[in-house]
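Internal tracking record. Fields below are filled automatically when a chain is submitted to the structure queue. Please do not edit lines marked as system-generated. If the sequence contains nonstandard residues, flag them in the REMARKS field before resubmitting.
Queue: standard
Priority: normal
Entity type: single polypeptide chain
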Amino acid sequence: MKHIMSRKETSMLKSTETPVKFAGDRKVTNHATQKGELGTAATVNDKNSFGLSASRCTNRTPFCDSCYAASTERQWNTVFEALEHNWRAIEPHLDDKIALYKLLAVGVEESIAQKVKRNVPVDKWQFRWFWDGDIPSQAFAEAMDMIAIAYPDVKFWVYTRCFQYVPTLTAENLAVYMSTDMWNWEWAVQVRSENPHVMFAFNGKDWAETQAVAELCGEPRGLKCPEQVGRIDLVEWSEETTKAGKYVGEGACARCDYCTVGKGNVRFAINPK
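SYSTEM-GENERATED OUTPUT FOLLOWS
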């Protein structure tokens, strides 16, 4: 049965559990404001994603040596600490889907409230699982699916290398992409044959390699990420401004909406030029 937590329940959870820290991802945001000179720097005004440290990832392949999120952690210790805080919050509950659901639903509730406050249309409500890190347990995957069912107006999506959890992620508003490269493509093909609802995110050092991985899988190669090829800016600024005179913008993923609804296979390259 669908259950959206009441404000009383949310308040109680905040006072009794270690809260997780949700992130404001520029690419995912529906509402960013100008930070400094107009460009890619932005203040993100909605918490729209969840992550764990890349050091907690399982099912890594040699491709992961070039992980952009891990690089961000190394560059900004505050990011690493926030992600490790999330690990400490969820670790006691890794086998308890109900406890995980309650912890994570608080953040989704807050994300929705922020979007409502800024008059974001319902059809633009989006949330990304694991901007960094990956699914840590079967119970966590079950909690993700439960949350998607509980919040049908939100478009959730995830890129994962934890293919063992893919059969659990079946909610209609949860788009699942298997991050597939030269080292794990055979497993991905096997999982896809049994779970036709999932899609491939082909990874490579360049576009030629992403196409080669797609060919190995016998799959349509899919769309090159529009932000990576420059078709969409990381943040698209509008003519709207805040009372303080700062421009308002929207992230690339929020504008593109390809992965958020699982339109098809997609490709990402380390060197996209």
